[in-house]
Amino acid sequence: MLAAACGHAAPAAPEPPKSVQLNAPGAPVDVEAALVPGYVVVVDFWAESCGACTVVGGMLAVQVAQEPRVLIRKIDVGDGDTPVARAYQIGALPHFQVYDRRGRLRYDLVGNDCVKAAEIAKSLLAEP
After folding, report:
1. Rounded to an integer, what distance in angstroms lies between the CA atom of residue 109 and that of residue 106?
2. Closest Cα to residue 78, out of 57, 51, 49, 98?
3. N or C: which end of the chain has fewer CB within 10 A?
4. 94 preceded by cis ω (within 30°)?
5. Is residue 45 part of a domain?
């Protein structure tokens, strides 16, 4: 406040990183802790053994690259029955969850539906 009173603008908060890997393969993670208020967040559940995950995740990254208010948080579910896969009921890959700017889960996309994630994220940005 003092800086603003002297005519100097307060420094802007740094932008959060666009895309972040949240865990080691299969390790538990708290998705809600990774959400950023005011941003649409696409959580990309993936595994190294999933070729489609790499393709669809890459498409998402390109499609939202110019959308500063859309973030990607990647969770490696590992192979098979892992703690993180059980916690988020991930039975098929690719699997995206899309959270709105208020941190509410709005879409749970599996398989081919994941290609719609960028369009959905952009539509959530337009909501009041």
Report:
1. 10
2. 49
3. C
4. yes
5. yes
4-25, pLDDT tens digit by residue? 555 666 667 788 999 999 999 9
* Token code pair at residue 59: 């498409």
The token duo for 60 is 């998402």
Sheet of 95-99: strand order equals: 19-21, 70-76, 40-46, 95-99, 105-110
In a domain, 115, yes or no: yes
Which DSSP helix (H) or strand (E) runs through 59? helix 51-63
SS3 4: helix
Number of compact structural domains in the chain: 1
Q: Return the CATH number at 67.
A: 3.40.30.10
Flag whether 6 is in a domain. Answer: no
Beta bridge partners of 44: 74, 96
| Residue bearing tokens 């993936």 | 46
* Domain membership of residue 74 as a residue range: 16-125
10 in a structural domain: no
Give the Cα separation of 61 and 58 in Å (integer).
Answer: 5
